[in-house]
Each structure stands twice: as C-alpha cells, then as structure tokens.
Write a structure and sequence with these properties.
Elements (H helix, E strand, L loop, with lengths): L5 E7 L12 E6 L5 H9 L17 E6 L3 E5 L10 H17 L3 E9 L6 H12 L4 E6 L6 H15 L7 E3 L8 H12 L1
Parallel strand pairs: 2-4, 2-5, 5-6, 6-7
Antiparallel strand pairs: 1-3, 3-4
Amino acid sequence: MRVTHAAFVTSALRPDQYPRDRRPECAFAGRSNVGKSTLMNALLGRKDLAKTSRTPGKTQTINFFDVNGRVYFVDLPGYGYAKVPKSMRMQWQKVMTDYLRQREFVRLVVHLIDSRHEPTDLDLDMLGLLDEAQVPTLVVATKIDKVPRTHRKGRLDTIRESLGLDEEALILPVSAVSGEGIREVWRVIDEMTA
C-alpha cells in the first residue's frame, strides 16, 4: 500500500471510545520496547506519528491511527514491563485482552518478537490469547539488523521452536532502521485488510 494519509485518531481504554466506522483494523502487539511504535512509523513512512521512547511502557492506551481512510493501525500497550504499579499492568492487560477477544474488526495482529532474544512466557501467553480469540496473526522478528547475517536463520528457528510454530508458519525478519522486511509486512497487511 502506498501511504498517502496517516493520522492519529484516538486513544481508548474502553470499547465505547473505539472508532465506530467499522473499518478493518491491524493491531500491533508485543513486549514493552520490542519496537511496536517504531515499526508502525516505518510502515507509514513517518518518524514520530506513533510515539516512541527508550523507556518501556510509553504506550498505555489503545491508540488508533487512520491509514489512507481505509484501515486503522492499532498500537496496543506493551506487556511484560514491571516498573509500573501492578494495578496499572493489570488494567493494561484487561484492556488489551478485551480488545483482542471482542473487537470484531480486527483482521490481523502483528505480533512482534525481539529477534535478539528468545521468546518469553509472556510472548507465549499472547500467542495463546490470539489463538483463543481466533485472530489471524503475523509473527515479526524485530531489530533483525542487530543480528549478524550468519546467525539470523538460527535466531528465526529458535523463535519458531520457542513459540511452538510449525515449519509453514510465516515469521518475517524486520528492521525499522534498514527497511528490511517492511514491504513483506505490508503485503500481509494488504491481503488481510482488503
């Protein structure tokens, strides 16, 4: 997709705050600081539309972005960040879980895994939630530019094995810095939100 328009629409914590125009949605999920907002900005060709931070936990609400008046990109709060009160972590988890289980317009979730690290139990829990909610999911291995080329296949194999994915499951290596994999992610988004 050629992005001609991208704009922040709203932040939400409750379903009554979500957009109501029945447009398809592509959500981005992953651990805190895995690169959700950075990947969204790279896909949209923008530097700071989705706010990024070196400090984990920047995204604290469900943020909706209009893309070409055709689809919403949805930036979900990161999971797994421990330096906020437990009550806040529980609120983020409930908001995200309710969204993924109940929102009928979600056509795809891009589940980000840091390619430099083995997936955690929280990553497995998220994949389980997506499977339970029957939401089509694309696994993206972020920050692939930080992994030497000779180690990339091994890192992707480790992610596949740790997540219990079969050989046919698509895992896309992506770098928001170099642009590697961005076109391939767009192909999947276009196909799922058409």
